[in-house]
Amino acid sequence: MYWSFSLVLLLRCLVTQGIKYKVRVDETTGYTKENGCFGYGLAVKTHTNLTIDEVNCHAICHPDDFQHKPKIFYYHAVDNYLYIVVMVNANPYYYEEEYYLHWLVANIKGQDLRVGNFSKADRLIPYKAPFSKEKNPESIRHQVFIMYQEYLIPNDKIKEKKRHKFKFFDWLSYQTTTETMGPMVGVEFTINFPGKNKLN
């Protein structure tokens, strides 16, 4: 069963995602840096009781919604399989393969991911709330998506200075202890920042 499931995931990635990681164009499930809404069963729940899933993907949010890290649930996760959860700012001014990295958690067991429990997983970089440095109002797109990993990834922390222009898919290719597949599912949301002149 393990190998048959892995083969299905591999074929799905090769056919719909493409072999190269740098540029994601998926005409079937739809993931690109410009469109992070694809797949089913992923839910992002904030401390303000907002839920972002396939029903309300592309939601418009307030900065307060993400001042604290959300809970991430993937209801189709398989017991004892391993997953990666990543949250990024899909900055349109960066190159295609670059993101601002808000959060990256690896080695999450499927049974834990289904219930949003990351206590036994490895936080490779801690959660950092979305922000804007602009004085004027600004809308910024963010994405949360999930990768499948075949084996454990070393708990090597990502340095804080690496958040900026983080090449996530290049980072994946450097993980020599495992193969990764995906993104398997994702959601996208836009946070409207009022501008620094209106925060007081």
From TrEMBL:
Leader sequence segment:
1-18
Q: Which UniProt keywords apply?
A: Signal
Matching entries from InterPro entries are given as: PEBP-like_sf
Kindly give the Gene3D superfamilies that the UniProt entry links to this protein.
Answer: PEBP-like
Q: What is this protein called?
A: Phosphatidylethanolamine-binding protein
